User: Fold D-malate dehydrogenase (decarboxylating) from Ramlibacter albus.
Amino acid sequence: MKTYQIACIPGDGIGKEVIPAGQEVLEALAKAQDKFNFKFKSFGWGGDWYREHGVMMPADGLGEIRNADAILFGSAGDPQIPDHITLWGLRLKICQGFDQYANVRPTRILPGIDAPLKRCAPKDLDWVIVRENSEGEYAGVGGRAHQGHPIEVATDVSMMTRAGVERIMRFAFKLAQSRPRRQLTVVTKSNAQRHAMVMWDEIAVQVAKEFPDVKWDKELVDACTARMVNRPASLDTLVATNLHADILSDLAAALAGSLGIAPTGNIDPERRYPSMFEPIHGSAFDIMGKGLANPVGTFWSCVMLLEHLGEPAAAQRLMKAIESVTANPELHTGDLGGKATTKQVTAAVIHQLNAARI
Ligand code: NAD
Ligand code: K
Ligand code: MN
Assistant:
């Protein structure tokens, strides 16, 4: 029987609560069928590691997880450590080190969840946001000169390469092509960002020619936020830069009910390196350590992990279990207006997995 090696990095805050829950659910899923097993290895990297060692992860950390079949990640962010240190020292190190250049963020309104938009039926909101995950605004290019002086200058340069934009555009068109509506919205801000985003637009026109069966349009990112609220059914697959898609996908998650539900995959489409799956939320300082975190974003990320491993039947089975749990308001956590705990939701999903024994 096949055994998948999964590297677990819970990180900080509620990451330490939702990732063990995800591991439990994957273990239960493996037990409920006899096709594959998981071998988990956990890494205690993050804020605690930083307090002890002065870095978020060891210098050879990427080497330690290099051979995993996939990575399950929680969150990097600690109330005592500046956010740019925790983010750059762990999550971005992995995303960039393993060239996980496609960040895929599906959003849908799951059964039983009250989405905040009154005019939006569940079927009207079914999106996948593709986020460029290797360059753009988060390329790390820039600096500070004359720090602390009145003449100080600080820059963060949004650096885009033709090769980097072409590969994410091609990935997004291909993904759009695989979905029933075959529709892509290319998000841009080329009216104001007149160099990199103009190249982005030109590359969209060029790559679109390879996908004549995909309908596509362009939308400025600010207008796109309004369109998501006013005409959600007009969108299907979207592609946007690192920063723009970061913001759009939090909005998307909130429109679908809660940040606590939304999943993501940091994918290396060429499969040279392991891909990394994580809920889109962060450490949630306000609720950490209380056992109140919604684990659904992590469970849905596990669905994406299973799809990536080439286990679509198992992925579907887990998604069904998640949906039958969200359908019951008594199993909603605080972010959804309910009273359930992380443990109760986890136990309910495991119960459903076992009940669905084939
Ligand atoms: P956050 O996602 O941690 O929290 C935003 C709000 O959503 C909070 O009120 C929180 O309680 C709620 N929330 C989020 N996830 C939830 C869940 N699963 N269940 C219930 N409620 C949930 O965002 P933030 O407050 O902006 O960031 C906190 C820290 O996390 C910062 O250090 C930030 O840098 C970090 N962060 C890390 C990642 C990552 O590792 N990928 C992503 C986002 C934020
Ligand atoms: K996260
Ligand atoms: Mn984000």
In short: The pocket of manganese (II) ion (ligand 3) is lined by residues 246, 250 (CB under 6 Å). Residues 303 and 318 are 6 Å apart (CA to CA). The two ends are 18 Å apart (CA to CA).
